[in-house]
Design goal:
two-stranded antiparallel sheet, mitochondrion, glycoprotein, two-stranded antiparallel ribbon
């Protein structure tokens, strides 16, 4: 159908609406189909094991079923050790071969050198577990080390992240590895174990982090049910606060205003007392201009002129606030009345408080699909093997195939050449366009995530608009306002939601690109490029905020009238501009109430959790679980309480914004006559001194 036009005799929501922005709807469907195709292709070519599991020098996984390095005995063959310490160092001209990596069943647990065990049988049998499969024990020791078939030395190691790292430990402040402070480097020289410390420092950080994570996990296992109880308390408190806003909104707002006035008044009094106290003191009459700039700011507090300036500034602010209250008192009363009305609307559409869970679930699906596709795309590369040699060779650096390398001409012309695993890559068309597919993956994530958020906003707006435009509340409301609004949004306005989310996604992708460029240019010395990039980042940040504001109000107009995105955005923008003062007052009043509500809920639940988990409540002192870190459940409760309160207040904020736009439309389109009655509540009509002639009050 054609987009619904404005009706000058409009009396309520237009339920007989048509499809809007069909082109964008088709474009979204095509993009989703393409996104699914990209995901299938990525899952076909990708292998996440490349991220999780280590490989040997041939690019083969360690300890994985179906691979040449699969071991049946226990422990599984899943560790990687790096062979270092060859007797010869390759020249700089040919490409340097990577350190040899092999898969072993377990890490070495003793100090050994190949030169020391080459003539024995027992130790050599243990040592060969850390040599390449082609190791020939009959070869001379110098040849074995030169061909890098075995490491020059073994060091006691511990497994970490499926890799072997030196088992570094500190005893009485002395760094030791395997109860030794020195080791033989395999070349007849003794070295201090501190030389291994730098290489294993990051490994120790990971090990300590893993131990910390285990303790945190233990805390969660004994306190999870108490955490859930705390989150339930936060949920109940949020619901009670929203209900109480119907009765206490006006009191809280006026108490806040009076407190601000009193605080400013005390500030003026304090500045005057300081100004009077400094009278006659030496050096207090020096002017600020004569004193100049001082790094010690306390010097200024000893000048009478400083306190006089503070007093004048506070007096001006106090006067401005009082004048604003005198001229804006009616608009403040309207804002309070709308907030109370929003509390009633939420009470009639209680299911709206649970709707953010649906939005959260859909966002989780988007994030999971994007993350999995990104991982599979990044692991779609194939193992690339290159020719490495220690002498001049015309084939040096070229790609090769290990299966046919020994029978190729390369080994004949370059006897010391090796075909070794270099990196993961590829030269097919698919591999060349992987970066494009990753970019498409990021773009689709932003588009779909914004679409899900838009769907949630237009659904809530439609439900609350049906409350406002019901002349007899709640008798004239649909039986299931939330589900009706959700169905209308998907059936008629998928294209409009796709349009708005597409515009926002484009801006967000540009911002991500600018952040990436900024990260790459951090080491650059071009100050002009950095300045230009900073300006662009600032501009697109502002643009994103504006588009989010415009989209939110456009979705409300779509829910009310069923018009297309551009028409809804234009009408919403000019409607708000015609009532800019009311918008500013309502925005600040609701911001204050939401801030107060979040602070009250999060603060009270957080304090309760602190006293409970630190066993400071005598009544339940024995009930609190023993913990490694008591801050783990406390922070979890605080963060969870904030998210719960934010979810409740986001619904409430959408309700306030929807009722506000409906209220402005009601004032502009209706006049209280029998043909065009006001749909606002009796309290708002009384506040505005409006009446419905010939119509009974709702």
């Amino acid at each position: 159908g054609t987009p619904q036009k404005y009706d000058p005799t409009f009396k309520g929501p237009i339920y007989d609406r048509g499809c809007t922005d069909i082109v964008c709807c088709v474009l979204l469907v095509v993009a989703i189909v393409g996104y699914v195709v990209v995901g299938v292709v990525a899952w076909t070519h990708g292998d996440p094991r490349k991220v999780i599991h280590p490989t040997d020098s041939r690019g083969q996984f360690c300890g994985q079923p179906g691979t040449p390095n699969e071991y049946s005995p226990t422990p599984p063959r899943g560790w990687v050790t790096t062979l270092r310490g060859g007797l010869t160092v390759p020249p700089a001209a040919p490409p340097c071969p990577p350190h040899t990596q092999i898969c072993v069943s377990k890490c070495p647990d003793r100090y050994l050198t190949y030169l020391g065990v080459s003539g024995t049988t027992g130790d050599l049998g243990y040592y060969r577990n850390f040599c390449v499969p082609e190791f020939n024990p009959r070869k001379a020791a110098i040849e074995v080390l030169k061909d890098k078939e075995c490491p020059a030395m073994l060091i006691p190691s511990t497994p970490l992240a499926r890799r072997c790292f030196p088992a570094i430990q500190a005893k009485k402040g002395v760094i030791m590895v395997g109860n030794e402070t020195t080791y033989d480097d395999g070349r007849g020289r003794r070295r201090n174990v501190t030389e291994l410390l730098e290489g294993a420092k990051k490994a120790n950080v990971v090990l300590e982090t893993r131990q910390l994570a285990m303790k945190i996990f233990e805390d969660y296992t004994v306190s999870w049910y108490w955490i859930i109880i705390g989150l339930v308390i936060a949920m109940v408190a949020s619901l009670i606060f929203i209900v109480l806003l119907r009765f206490l909104a006006g009191i809280m707002v006026w108490v806040m205003i009076v407190m601000v006035i009193l605080v400013l008044g005390y500030g003026i009094f304090h500045c005057y007392m300081e100004y009077a106290k400094l009278k006659g003191e030496a050096g207090s009459d020096v002017s600020l201009a004569d004193l100049g700039f001082q790094t010690d700011l306390r010097v200024y507090l000893h000048l009478r002129q400083t306190w006089l300036a503070f007093m004048i500034i506070l007096c001006v602010v106090e006067l401005v606030i009082i004048l604003l209250l005198i001229f804006l008192r009616k608009r403040i009363l309207i804002a309070i009345a709308l907030i109370k009305e929003a509390s009633r609307a939420v009470g009639h559409v209680m299911s709206s408080l649970l709707f953010p869970l649906c939005t959260f679930f859909l966002l989780c699906l988007c994030i999971a699909y994007w993350a999995s596709t990104a991982v599979f795309l990044s692991t779609s590369n194939e193992a690339v093997y290159k020719v490495f040699n220690e002498s001049a060779c015309p084939f040096s650096g070229q790609t090769c195939r290990p299966e046919t390398f020994n029978t190729s001409n390369v080994t004949k012309l370059c006897p010391d050449a090796q075909c070794l695993f270099a990196f993961y890559g590829g030269e097919t068309a698919y591999h060349k366009y992987l970066i494009v597919l990753q970019f498409f993956n990021v773009f689709m994530f932003f588009w779909l995530a914004n679409f899900v958020i838009a769907l949630g906003q237009v659904t809530l707006a439609g439900a609350f608009a049906s409350y406002y435009w019901a002349f007899k509340k709640p008798d004239d409301m649909p039986a299931f306002p939330l589900f009706s609004a959700f169905g209308r949004a998907l059936r008629y306005h998928t294209g409009s939601l796709a349009f708005g989310s597409l515009v926002l996604a484009v801006v967000q992708v540009i911002r991500v690109t600018l952040e990436y460029l900024d990260h790459r240019l951090k080491a650059a010395e071009n100050k002009f490029a950095k300045f230009l990039l900073s300006c662009l980042k600032c501009c697109f940040w502002c643009l994103e905020k504006f588009i989010k504001f415009l989209n939110r109000n456009a979705y409300i107009m779509i829910a009310i009238y069923g018009t297309n995105f551009c028409t809804s955005a234009r009408n919403a923008f000019f409607l708000l501009m015609r009532n800019i003062i009311r918008v500013a007052v309502l925005d600040k009043v609701t911001d204050f109430l939401f801030f107060l509500g979040k602070l009250l809920i999060v603060g009270s639940v957080g304090i309760l959790a602190f006293f409970f988990f630190t066993q400071r409540i005598k009544l339940v002192q024995d009930t609190a679980p023993p913990l490694n870190y008591y801050w783990v459940p406390i922070l979890t409760v605080i963060v969870g309480s904030y998210l719960i309160a934010h979810g409740f207040f986001s619904v409430y904020g959408m309700c306030v914004d929807t009722l506000f736009l409906c209220f402005l439309e009601d004032l502009e389109r209706n006049d209280g006559s029998a043909e065009k009655p006001y749909f606002m509540s009796p309290n708002l009509r009384k506040l505005l001194k409006k009446t419905n002639t010939g119509q009974p009050d709702a």
